[in-house]
Queue: 3 jobs
Job 1
Amino acid sequence: MNLRITFFTAFMAAGLLSACVKEAPTTTELLQDDARRNEVMDAICNDPKMLGDMMQHVHQNQHAMDMMQSDSTMMNNMMQMMHGNPGMMQHMMSNMMNMAAADSSTCKQFCKMMEGNEHMRCAMHDMMKDSTMMNKDMPMHRHGNMPMMK
């Protein structure tokens, strides 16, 4: 009889314990809940290190890069975000200029894009024609007198 009570008590304890122990939700299950997904995204966006890690992860993920290149809505949203934040736009443009200055093929591609856009070409020409950059005594380029405009 004593053995039955011990066995029954152990069986009930095991049943209660297994009922109380829940498995942690999988990442997919966690992200399916809108509130939880927003909490995760807010946590990443509000932490500079995590946000940097996320941006690096996106750049290293070919699927994410392909999606960004093919999704015009996403790119338009990013451009709108920059347009609404002049400091961010200036920072991004500065980074792009530094990247172009450090890599001649990127520089050439960047210049061809600017030249191919009539509005940008005219705006640059108008800005440069009265500046010291158009002074004949000054080199136009650090590698010599290379005209910037055709």
Note: Residues 143-150 have pLDDT under 50 and may be disordered.
Job 2
Amino acid sequence: MKRTAVVLSLAASCAACASWHRLEPGQTDRGLAISVREQEPAAARRAAVDAMLPLMLVDGSVPDRRKLLDKLVYSHLGRYTGRLRRVRGRGCIVEVVPDALAPVLVDAGLSRPRGYPSGQDKVLVALGVAGRPYGGADFAAGDALRLALFAAGIFTRDLRDPFDPANNDKDRRVILADTTTVAEAATGGWGWIVTGHAVAAVDLSAQTGTAKGAARLDARLFDASASTAPYAFSTYDEEVDVSTKAALSRALEQVGQKASTEVQARVRAARAGRNHVAFMLAGPKDPERVRSLLSTLRRTPGVDGAALYKWNGPYDSVDIWAYARGLTAEDLVARVLRVDPSLNFVGIDSELREVFIEAPMPGMDL
């Protein structure tokens, strides 16, 4: 009799443990559990991600991004969702992991307005002639361009550098057409793409015994965040040396460095006055609170867009980025509070452009 009582007690204890860890709608250690009507797991995961995306896309619109989302998100739902529980007759409960999804959307430019960088500007150098093997002049000029941009604090990679371990695609030594390069680069999170072709020649003087190297780079700079035509420019340089090889190398290096000056000027001009302000929303992670703050930010004058940037795992806070042109963090806070006086301003870090704020729970006043 005692043995039976012990077994029943253990069984009840195990059932209680199972019930305690059962997935329910609401906040989880990794993200948010969402209830959906779909019964089939794959469809349920997609529906749960769809429910989260309006908070994470800068304009909240999913249909306009469907093609890109198919490639980046819907093809890899297992990366952005966690546990799943079927509820008989009511669908499924699916755990969505926003912190896994956010970086993908940021890199693809889906969580920020056009013209706003996601942190550091990124330039992809892809010099060469479409359909031809990678030439030495393009390599030399491209390398000089890459190094000069890197020295200026702009993250740069040469798509055609055979020594770059990141370039492991089998066709890396064949130059793609501009349109293909730009499309692929934009999907990969690159903000700017430099294409074009470098040529060089050397003239050896029999009278002086010196060599004059001449190089020219005809380039096009694409802004991946805009649909405008590329900015076309050319750089030219001549160098004299006793060595033909040195004269050519120095001329190609100079056209690359001059191209860097052109690229830097265009990038800085395009980004002038465009910044983000991070709103740290403290308190329980109710999606309605997040949605309410996003709605307030998106209708605030001077704000070009806003999106959920970080869910912050199990912690009771989320980060929302608001993108504004020509506004300081203080200016933006003043405008936001005029739109929604119920928000509780807690503090601000002007240097880091971070705002600490609280919002009332639905139906409650702070």
Note: The first helix runs from residue 2 to 20.
Job 3
Amino acid sequence: MLLSWLLRQVLMYGGLAVAALAVASLVHASRLRGELPRAKVMTRKGELRRLLVRWLRPLASVLGIAMFFWAFVHNIEYVIVTDGAEGPTAERRYSYEDNPNVAIAPGTSSPSKAQRHDPVWVVNRSTRTVRVQTVQYGGGLSFGAAPIEIPPSTAAHFRRIDFIGPRDVPPNEVRESHSLGMSFREWLTW
């Protein structure tokens, strides 16, 4: 299942907020336990309401934690390229699956488990070949790597994708907070 970035954020932080509010409500209710309740004649409707009040807070906390965890594990980013009215279009989605269910692009391989980052998968569902080009800024080393081509109905993984499409051209220079003297950006284009 692929989620949009906004839906993932809403589920993750909304679930955390629901759980936190439910736990705060439980703590508040436990402080009030020492007081005697007002005497009332209970009806079926009142019993149902009392049962809901009693179990809603613990259920909400469990549900909130489950929502957070479910959205948290959907952390593998996919950039899906499809055919649009004016050429290919790309859209970012998130999933828990660490391998797409399409063939790997020629000349690339699946990421190893030893890598310390989650890959960004570029899945080409369009009818055109797309490419990812590494842009180097600064530094004396010039890698001069050829762009990686991704044919239709295949996928390839990258550390990140910074720019998407022929209109989102990488800038001539970038500013970095670290002082290595060189930086790299990945550009998905067609």
Note: The chain has a mean pLDDT of 83.
